[in-house]
Design a protein that fits this description.
The chain has about 350 residues and is α/β, with parallel strands linked by helices. It contains 13 helices and 13 strands. It has a 5-stranded mixed β-sheet. The chain has a 5-stranded mixed β-sheet with strand order 8-7-9-5-10. A 3-stranded mixed β-sheet has the order 6-11-12. Strand 7, helix 6 and strand 8 form a beta-alpha-beta unit. The longest helix is centred in the last third of the chain and has 20 residues.
Length: about 350
Amino acid sequence: MKIVTKNLLQPIFSLTFLVGLSALVSSCQPSQPNETTAAIKIDGSDTVYPITQEVSNDYNFQKNNGKSPSVKAIELNSSGTSSGFKKFCLGETDINNASRPIHTHEIKKCTQNNVTFLELPIGFDAITIVVNSENNWAQDITLAELKKIWEPSAEGKITTWNQIRSTWPNKPLNLFGPDKDSGTFDYFTEIAVGQEGTIRKDYKADKNYKIIESKVSSDINALAFIPYSYYNSSKDTLKALSVDSGTGAVMPSRTSVKWGKYRPLSRPLFIYVSYKSLRQKPDMREFLELYMDKAPEFVSAIGDVPLTDHAYKLNKIHFNKGKVGTVFEGKSQFNLSLEQVLQKQAKF
């Protein structure tokens, strides 16, 4: 797939002139809703949600300190990456939080609805395999064992721990994870099973990671896959398993993700920005500039892995130049290190 980027944003002075002209015209007409006060609508990934929530809180705090008191609150929801893209590509939202790259069918839908977008990576996550903290038999797991657990043919058949590994006890295997609207679900199923969205159906699915955490925390026989930041917030009651992808078992950590050791279960996180909204809602620019400035701080604060300083600078360059499109060819790309993502963005 050939990736085409365009330089769409007008110079700042032109945008300022147009906004000023619009204000002058509106002042000579009957009072109408001010476009600058329109809420910024954000939906999508539950994994990215906490980061965007922190930025939104900071943005609203600044707005309420006299800068622009008329600006309405940001409308922030979390319906999952896939569900969010459905709304985004219909033009119903301004920003979509995403825990995977936009897919080909979603690009097609956006194109059909004239939704042009900017793709901004904001951090890295590690999909974490967790068990109850009292589980004293499982310390690590292989990709082959994950497939054995989660593939469709395991439904109703792989139901005890000793069926995964003979040295593990003959105890019930209780499985938990996110639902099909989740980008984590998409990414994990393609890695573990080999086909996105293909997974056994007899596990307990939920869109709320807090509920999944609670279920695993109260069940010694439980196993689940969740984002790294959610594991980080529940280390007292959850235990992470190291994952062996063929070169030895590796624990998820900021260091293992940063240096490309925890692969293929590490992945970039994104926000996708509607270019039309960026043009029509001047507050979008201010919000996104704050987002790019604060991303390293808030990504770290919620327990994920920030990109390099250079990567965040590239985001700002692409944002100011109005580079639209994606560098991920309409699919999730596994085994990418942070530096490889950076190289892709540098060529964007």
